[in-house]
Amino acid sequence: MSFKTGHIGLNVTDLDKSKEFYQRVFGFTLAGESDHEGRRYAFLAQDGTLVLTLWQQSEGRFTAGLPGLHHLSFQVADLAAVRAAETVLREIGARLHHDGVVPHREGSSSGGVFFDDPDGIRLEIFAPDAAGDRPAPTAGAPTCGFF
Questions:
Q1: Quick count: other Cβ atoms within 10 Å of Cβ 83?
Q2: What interhelical angle do 15-26 and 79-92 show, nearest 10?
Q3: Among positive and negative, which fits the CA dihedral 146, 123, 85, 5?
Q4: Do both 50 and 78 map to the same domain?
Q5: Is residue 6 predicted with pLDDT exceeding 80?
Q6: Same domain, 51 and 78
Q7: What Rg value do the Cα atoms of the chain yield, rounded?
Q8: How far, in whole angstroms, is CA 29 from its chain's centroid?
Q9: 30, 55, 62, 85: which could form a disulfide with 120 (CB 3.0–4.6 Å)?
Q10: pLDDT the model gives residue 147
Q11: Both ends of the chain: CA-CA distance in Å?
Q12: Facing residues of 116 across strands?
C-alpha cells in the first residue's frame, strides 16, 4: 500500500477573503463553490487538480498552541518562484515570519518564506535551492519547526 497527499481542507472565517488570498498568493483557480448560507465552501485547483478546499465554518484565529496542524508547506521550482510569492505576500501585507527567505536550517540549500494566511494558519513556500548563503534564523533548530 502507498499513500500520496490528496487535497487539503481548511476551515476559514471569511470565505471571500481566503479565496482571494490563496488565488493571489498561489495562483490557484476556482474549480467550484457553494454560496448557500451556512454551507459555504470553495474548491481551489492548480492545472485542473483540486489542491485546497476552504470551508467557511470557523471563528477566531488559528492557534499553534493546540494539537493539530503545525503548518502547510508548498514546494516550487526555484528561488525565483519563492521570491515572486514573497513579493505578492509583501504587497498584500501578509504576516511574514523571519522577514523573508531563509534556509530550512543552518547550512541547508533548501529554504523559503514562512507566513500566515488571513486566519493565522501558518504556511511555507520553499524551493530546494532557495537558501543560498543566508543564515538560519535560529542556529541548531529547523526554521520550519519554530515560527
A1: 16
A2: 150
A3: positive
A4: no
A5: yes
A6: no
A7: 16
A8: 15
A9: 62
A10: 84
A11: 34
A12: 122
Task: Output the nine-digit C-alpha cell for 58.
Answer: 470557523
> Is residue 146 predicted with pLDDT exceeding 90?
no
| Average pLDDT of the segment spanning 121-145 | 89
Here the CATH number for the domain that contains residue 45 is: 3.10.180.10
Number of structural domains in the chain: 2
In which element (H, E) is residue 102 found? strand 96-103
**Mean local confidence (pLDDT), 23-43:** 96
Residue 128 within any structural domain of the chain: yes
Residue with C-alpha cell 511574514? 96
Instruction: Give backbone dihedrals phi and psi of 78, rounded to 5 degrees, phi first.
Output: -160, 180
Question: Cα angle vertex 5, ends 130, 23, to 5°?
Answer: 60
142-145 long-range contacts, CB within 8 A, separation 24+: 142/104, 142/105, 143/98, 143/102, 143/103, 143/104, 143/105, 143/111, 143/114, 144/71, 144/73, 144/104, 144/114, 145/70
Q: What is the residue range of 85's domain?
A: 72-137
